[in-house]
Amino acid sequence: VGDRKDFDKEVASVCPFCGVGCQISLKVKDGKIKYVEGIDGPANQNRLCVKGRFGFDYINHPHRLTKPLIRRDDAPAKGMNVDPGNYLDVFREATWEEAMDRAAGGLSELRDTQGGQTVAGFGSAKCSNEEAYLFQKLIRQGFGHNNVDHCTRLCHASSVAALMENVGSGGVTATFNEIENADVAIVIGANPVENHPVAATYFKQFAARGGKLIVMDPRGQALKRHASHMLQFKPGTDVAMLNAICNVIVTEGLFDEQYIDGYTENWDAEREHLKRFTPESMSEICGIDAETLRDVARTFAGAQSAMIFWGMGISQHTYGTDNSRCLISLALMTGQIGRPGTGLHPLRGQNNVQGASDAGLIPMYLPDYQSVTSAEVRASFDALWGAGTVAAEKGLTVTEILQGIHDGQIKGMFIQGENPAMSDPDLDHARAGLAMLDHLVVQDIFLTETANFADVILPASAFAEKTGTVTNTNRQVQMGRPAVPPPGEAREDWRILIDMGQRLGLDWTYSHPRDVYAEMASTMPSLDHISWDRLEHQAVTYPTSGPDDPGQSILFADGFPREGGRARFTPADVIAPDEQPDAEYPMVLTTGRQLEHWHTGAMTRRATVLDAVEPQANCSLHPHTLRDLGVEAGGYVTLSTRRGRITVMARADRAVARDMVFLPFAYVEAAANLLTNPAIDPIGKIPEFKYAAVRVEKASQP
Ligand code: SF4
């Protein structure tokens, strides 16, 4: 980057990648971001990971969309057949006027001729809170139903379902930084060193000062080096292992009776339920010996202050809600909630998945998780948005919407900043659905795999090109600011949404994200005392008791937001993953992210440094498995499941069990989700990305 002091201006903003929400300073020279530094945000205290520090130059990539595009009349049939850098044989450039006319016209025609319920929307956890609010309002007000969702469905929907059910609130009960005050912490089904790298630095510091770090994961990971206990359990056996740990706490009388009596309900049922999950009987199922399970139970229950962190390894299962219920029960029975150094923390994935969910970008809840099924709630939104605006029926989720296309129920979609043609399970099915739509409008910064299927593409803005608030995994609301303008004719997302709303006939008069925030905050008690002006000057953790209170990093010191004020124990049974290995597909496939790449790769594979470090699709196998296959590290393997087949370069990795393969999902040339199982958790409706039966064979070529 040359002379690091040589810049024209510096702009404080928030990293666009993970839910940690690191604050950054963008150094701009000659209209371009020259480099990035970490600043003293509440979550990161000047720290950054490789993505935050070096992952910004995708915004200057030549593939950026700079003009609205309309599918040509003579375009080939919809499919995965568009070059993102050379697409004029499929799409033609258009003016904003023509493109918006076509985009809104197609959606409103479906609404007016076939009914509003034939149109669905996916909003984005990469956009701001204001944009998420506008998007869900646009679908609800513009089409009269709740068929609006976003990628939370693919990440922590089951965690949120369990938290809402048992503690009455979907957010974290304590910030991850609270680990500073803990003496024991469990990290389960998460790989923070790769996925929440700055949070991981706090976890390592915790271990370095003597905190006991209990890591539980079917795959080994870098945090293992800092762990007092590493439980590499058999994939798909979380409930068996966690119930066995809880069984020890019950049978050895290690539970906190006073806390249970004062703050919980349904303990007797939980206690009775746990009796049969003895460490001996569960040991064979989960692969962890009984004495280790006892030791972990005693260590956790004996802590003065203990926290539980979890990630997609818990949530992305057909029993993801049960997994989270077990973790909640563990914290409740030991009284490890509501004090410094205690709490439950599902590590949120996207930079604004917390905020987008809070803003109502989900089919069953309006902003602040107010249920669409409540007449009182609907009446309050109708008073603001117009009589009869909010439908009483819960809408369809991401996976249900894609199925709804196949079933002929959904005929048009508006997709903003999401990439279901890469991110959804069983991609052949998802892509076939997108190709069936009568009218698809995609709003994005690149011609993504999903945009391949679009009728109209609206060029949007990257994080560094617009104003808006975002909310991180810690419930900290922070201000994102523009450092550079959008390229060419691209526009800020909020402007496009307002234009779309007006063309759909909505009486929208917002002229700045500030106006949107004011309306949104008026519907969300969680944002009481958090004004736009306040956020211009400081990050605020919600909830906050007044304009001078920086916010509550720890919740539920004195009861829970449930009827009666008590949290609930919900017993969980052992349920096997939807698909089991067999003679044809003898191994287990699990998917996830890598440190350098973000989700479907649209941004990070166009970031020079990150792509240089990790340029190639890969999977990880145990060296002995590779040897048995006759494959050298760096050679190729073909992975086949009941849904698809890909060929990919294989790495040797001792952290992966011998009967398992780990596959990152950022690479379109070997798309992991061609293989994944679309079976969903019946409550959270989240697919089982973490477990599928797979066959691995030697291949000669990619
Ligand atoms: Fe960005 Fe997350 Fe890295 Fe922080 S830890 S710099 S928010 S990717």
UniProtKB/TrEMBL annotation:
GO molecular function: formate dehydrogenase (NAD+) activity
Residue ranges of every copy of the 4Fe-4S Mo/W bis-MGD-type domain listed in the record: 8-63
Coiled-coil blocks: none
Top-level taxon of origin: Bacteria
E.C. numbers: 1.17.1.9
Keyword Repeat: yes
Enzymatic class: oxidoreductase
Record's keyword terms, sorted: 4Fe-4S, Iron, Iron-sulfur, Metal-binding, Oxidoreductase, Repeat
Similarity remark: In the C-terminal section; belongs to the prokaryotic molybdopterin-containing oxidoreductase family.
Protein name stated in the entry: Formate dehydrogenase subunit alpha
Lineage: Bacteria, Pseudomonadati, Pseudomonadota, Alphaproteobacteria, Rhodobacterales
Residues of the full protein shown: 220 to 921 of 929
